[in-house]
TrEMBL record, chains A, B:
SUPFAM superfamilies: Putative DNA-binding domain
PROSITE patterns linked: HTH_MERR_2 (PS50937)
Organism: Tritonibacter horizontis
Entry protein name: HTH-type transcriptional regulator ZntR
InterPro entries from the UniProt entry: DNA-bd_dom_put_sf, MerR-type_HTH_dom, MerR_fam, Tscrpt_reg_MerR_DNA-bd
Domain HTH merR-type: 1-70
Taxonomic classification: Bacteria, Pseudomonadati, Pseudomonadota, Alphaproteobacteria, Rhodobacterales
GO molecular function: DNA binding; DNA-binding transcription factor activity
Alphabetical UniProt keywords: Coiled coil, DNA-binding, Transcription, Transcription regulation
A Pfam entry, by short name: MerR
Keyword ATP-binding: no
Amino acid sequence: MLTIGTLAKKTGTKVQTIRYYEQIGLMPEPGRTEGGQRRYGDAELDRLSFVRHARQLGFSLDAIRELLDLSDHPGKSCAEADAIARRQLKQVEQRLARLEALRTELKRMVHECSGGQTSDCRVLEVLRDHSECLTDHEEISA
Amino acid sequence: MLTIGTLAKKTGTKVQTIRYYEQIGLMPEPGRTEGGQRRYGDAELDRLSFVRHARQLGFSLDAIRELLDLSDHPGKSCAEADAIARRQLKQVEQRLARLEALRTELKRMVHECSGGQTSDCRVLEVLRDHSECLTDHEEISA
DNA sequence: TTTACATCCTCTAGCTACTGTAGGTTCAAG
DNA sequence: CTTGAACCTACAGTAGCTAGAGGATGTAAA
């Protein structure tokens, strides 16, 4: 039986985060000691590892909820899990494209900085100059 | 003189966002009509364009505040603006590295999906299997 | 001039995914 | 039996907006 602190260490999660996951229904309510402290078993360790791993891969909590649901019902079709992963991959590729464009622009800003006064600073100039925008009014959710 | 709605359209910002920027002190309090509606001039249009451009480049509102401050004092050294841009570039490159690793892993998950039942699903398996982690307990803020 | 209606106003609450704090209790070691 | 780390609940705060309620204003046509 693990305390919440031990579980936290084993999974690289903060204690509060585990309690938060319980609150939003992502983790089950665990057993308690007589004094009211949470005690966890291996099932919870596995579940939390799954959640953290998915988070590291950039899945949203909602997506993880779906994945956990699929994983709890082994008879269901794999297609759904695959669809979720594909959606995720698409998002990642979009972010990559934007970040790459971004890196180019930032590099240019940095390399062209003359080192003088801000009145001549390329960094500020680039930000002021709207004509050099990649695309107008498009957001980067980096 | 521009209404807030016109300013919003010209800069690709939502009306609420402009009011929010005013609230947090990123945009100045504009003049008002007798009836109390906001009216903007070219200075505000420029400032908001600067802000939105910087946001598109992934700068935080705090960083933008610094940049605006530098830009308001043209005598200051360019070095600070350069430092902010360099910090930003570094962050972008870190994110890129993580996202690339992520893409590789997601691609593997998707390609190995057998199409059968969830009990054999590689997607879920990969998420359960902690040994295939890139690095332990490291977060991706994608 | 009146009426219609888009746009504006303030205020409040909600979103994601946590993180931090205050004030108090429990557990395990010595 | 005492100490002190770790636990508990409850609430507030973070970034960067976004949405909605309920009402006022501005403008253009009838």
